[in-house]
Amino acid sequence: MKKVIVMLLACCLMLSLLCGCGLGKKEPVKYMVLVMDQENAPVPGVLVEFCTDTQCVTATSDETGIAELDAESATYTVHILKVPEGFAPYELELSIGPQADLLTVNLSPAA
Hints:
By secondary structure, the chain is of the alpha+beta class. It has one helix at residues 2-20, and strands spanning 29-36, 47-51, 56-60, 66-71, 76-82, 94-96, 101-106.
C-alpha cells in the first residue's frame, strides 16, 4: 500500500512539474503576406486583415512589403483592407494556414 501511495505522489509531482514547463501550450506560427506591385517591388503601408471564425487581427506591410501575424496555428482568411495611393483596391479573399505560410499578393495600379 505504501508503494502505491508513493507512486501516486511521484506521478502527481511529475505532472505538476510538466504542467509548469509549458507542455500543452501551442507555439505561435508566423504567417506572412508579401505585397508587391506589378514589377515585383515591395509595397509598404498596405493594411492586411487576418481572420478566423472568432477574431480578426490587422497588420501593415513594412518596407519589405511583408505584413506578419504571429498567432496560434489556424486557417486564416486574408483581406487587403487598404492600399497606398496609386494602387487599385484588392478585392479577392485569400486563405492562409494552418501551417506557417507565405502568401504573395500583387497589386495593380489605379485606373
